[in-house]
Amino acid sequence: MKTLLKILGFIILLAVIYAIVAILAFDKKHHLERSVVINAPKEKVWQHVGSLKEYNVWDPFSKADKDIVITYSGAGDKVGDSYHWKGNSKVGEGEQSVTETVANDKFVTKLHFIEPFEGEAVAKFVLTPEGNGTKVTWTIDNELNAMMKIMKPMMDMNMTGILDQGLGDLKKISEK
Fold first, then answer.
1. Which of 64, 73, 93, 164 supports an S-S bond with 86, CB 3.0-4.6 Å?
2. pLDDT tens digits, one per residue of 86-108
3. DSSP class of 132
4. d(Cα 14, Cα 19) in Å, to the nearest integer?
5. What is the pLDDT of residue 7?
6. CA distance 155 to 140
7. Which pairing describes strands 119-130 and 133-143: parallel, antiparallel, or unpaired?
8. Distance CA 163, CA 79 (A)
9. Per-residue pLDDT averaged across 62-86, rounded?
10. Closest among 121, 86, 123, 132 to 101, alpha carbons compared
C-alpha cells in the first residue's frame, strides 16, 4: 500500500511539474496548419471553400452533431457575412464571420466560441496551384490561456485529425 501511494504521489508530482512547465514554456500564440493537394482546378475547389454555406457541407465540426442549428446572416461569401451555430457538447455554440476573401485564392474567417469555452480564433484557407491540381492550406490561429497550454498536446492531436478529416472530405467533394 505504501508503494502504491508513493507511485501515485510521484505521478501527481510529475503532472504538476508538467503543468507548470507547459504554462511557462508553451507560447501563448497557437498556429495549426494542414494541407492537401486536390486534383481539381482552383475555381472548382473555391466553390466549396469560398462560402460559409458550402464550407458547412464538408466541415467536420458541423458534422459532429446531426441536430446542429445554423443560422446564416448574408450569402456567406462576402466580408461581413456570418453564421451562428448551436449544437451538442461536442460542437458547442459560436459564430463565424468572413473577414477577407480573394476569389479563388484566400478565404479568412473570425471564429468566436461561446460554449463550452469563450474564445476567438482566425481560420484561413489558401489555395495555390500545384501541378495539375490545387493545394489547399487550412490554418487556425488563436491564443492559449493557461488551461489550454496544459492541454496543448492533446488539442493539437485532436485538431490535426479533425482538419485532416475536413480536408479529406473537401478533396472528395472537389474531385467529383
1. 93
2. 999 888 999 999 999 999 999 99
3. T
4. 9
5. 86
6. 12
7. antiparallel
8. 23
9. 92
10. 123
